[in-house]
Write a structure and sequence with these properties.
Number of strands of chain B: 2
Mean pLDDT of chain A: 83
Distance between the termini of chain A: 51 Å
Strand content of chain A: under 5%
Structural class of chain A: mainly alpha
Number of domains of chain A: 1
Radius of gyration of chain A: 19 Å
Number of strands of chain A: 0
Largest interface: A-B, 65 and 63 residues
Oligomer: heterodimer
Shape of chain B: globular
Structural class of chain B: mainly alpha
Shape of chain A: globular
Strand content of chain B: under 5%
Largest sheet of chain B: 2 strands, antiparallel
Helix content of chain B: over 70%
Low-confidence stretches of chain A: none
Number of helices of chain B: 11
Helix content of chain A: over 70%
Order of helices and strands of chain B: HHHHHHEEHHHHH
Order of helices and strands of chain A: HHHH
Mean pLDDT of chain B: 80
Low-confidence stretches of chain B: none
Chain lengths: 129, 277
């Protein structure tokens, strides 16, 4: 019981630190991209009143965004920051999975896996076309 | 309007949303979606994408700020998340086929419900005898208090599970955190103590948002130009709000904001019926 308690607290503290680190990094990247974006585009007119639906799959989106960010495209840099933000709850789920497994709670390891599978399924909806 | 003006107004509004969120517990999407759609003329799909970004920001942000000293019931959260994520995926997919006006009306109704609910007195009933299903799922637990750990049990698991499914659909469809429904499911239906339900709900919000976020990204609801001022504004507002919170009277604040929110909700519903979306 003692050993798994230590691991539990360690995991909690690690998650807290990782989340903090992740959010600040995400913010920094987003703001950098935001400043670049504003400098280049500030006098342009907004046109967000028309929504063009898209259907890219996640992996295409990730690689296109990272490539664009690498080339210095401001919108892609912002998007990278947002993607980093989205990563933070994913890390929480993965850590929960690890925590349950280390506690030998196989019922909840399975339950967490079910939740992860549902989320993974949602990626497949982007492959429909 | 120009991108610069748009960004500045949006940042200010998101700051307000973050402030309100941390002072009252009413979610950020509540202010951001009407601000974007009614004031700035943005299509509702971009608005719900931005709202989702702010939900994840506040959920992860507050999780990072407080070390959860064993209050969150991760088993309860994870089990209910099966219902919530499944609902969120359905809701997010529905958002692409349901007309924007309907989403607006639904959003308005949810807002009113949420605002009224936050004003209700919350009585705590501690469950002595948990249901069999609750025990099989290892849901009863303890939470720490200055006087030592307090035990609690739970029941009506199926009822709570179903309500969370509904909360998930609304989350995916509207981009909100649907905290009110989570509280109803855990506090009222499953009789979980308030502190536990609040922290567990925060944990769950991040997981549910992840499910919606994959679909939102793939369908193109997340626009960097809209989301960047939102996420920065909300985080700065939330941090400011957390500092002010100590000196403010939460009950009066909640009442004040509930009135504003009901006004906004009525506006959304009215515009939804008029077909302006």
């Amino acid at each position: 019981m003692g050993a798994s308690n230590i691991k539990d607290k360690d995991i909690q503290l690690t998650i807290g630190a990782l989340l903090r680190y992740g959010i600040w990094t995400s913010l920094f990247v987003s703001i950098t991209g935001g400043v670049l974006y504003l400098i280049k585009h500030y006098p342009e007119v907004v046109h967000y009143d028309n929504f063009k639906g898209e259907d890219t799959n996640l992996f295409q989106l990730l690689s296109a965004t990272l490539q664009g960010a690498g080339k210095g495209n401001a919108r892609d840099i912002i998007m990278t920051g947002i993607l980093l933000l989205f990563l933070t709850p994913v890390l929480r789920i993965i850590f929960s999975l690890v925590a349950f497994f280390l506690e030998k709670d196989y019922l909840y390891t399975a339950i967490t896996l079910i939740v992860i599978i549902i989320i993974a399924l949602s990626i497949s909806f982007g492959f429909a076309h | 309007m120009t991108i610069l003006v748009f960004t500045l107004i949006l940042f200010a509004g998101a700051f307000g949303a973050g402030l309100v969120g941390s002072l009252t517990g009413l979610g950020g999407g509540v202010i951001i979606i009407p601000l974007l759609t009614l004031v700035l003329g943005v299509d509702i799909h971009y608005a719900i994408g931005a709202a989702l970004v702010s939900v994840i920001a506040t959920s992860s942000g507050s999780a990072a700020a407080y070390v959860k000293e064993g209050i969150t019931n991760m088993r309860l959260g994870m089990f209910l998340e099966i219902a919530t994520t499944a609902g969120a995926v359905c809701g997010a997919l529905l958002a692409s086929v349901i007309p924007a006006n309907f989403i607006a009306v639904l959003f308005g109704c949810t807002l009113i419900f949420s605002a009224l609910n936050s004003l209700r007195k919350k009585e705590e009933h501690v469950v002595e005898q948990s249901s069999r299903l609750a025990m099989q799922l290892k849901l009863p637990s303890t939470y720490p208090t200055p006087q030592g750990p307090v035990k609690y049990g739970t029941k009506n698991v199926i009822g709570g599970f179903s309500m969370m499914g509904l909360a998930g659909i609304l989350s995916g469809l509207l981009g909100i955190g649907s905290g009110a429904f989570k509280v109803i499911a855990m506090d009222n239906i499953m009789r979980i103590p308030f502190k536990v339900s609040t922290t567990t709900s925060n944990f769950m919000m991040g997981v549910t948002a992840t499910a919606s976020s994959v679909i939102y990204l793939q369908k193109g609801y997340i626009d960097p130009g809209v989301c960047m001022p939102v996420v920065t504004g909300v985080l700065v507002g939330a941090i400011t709000g957390a500092r002010i919170l100590v000196k403010a009277n939460p009950q009066k604040l909640r009442a004040f904001f509930a009135i504003i929110i009901i006004a906004i909700a009525a506006n959304m519903i009215y515009n939804g019926f008029r077909g302006t979306f």
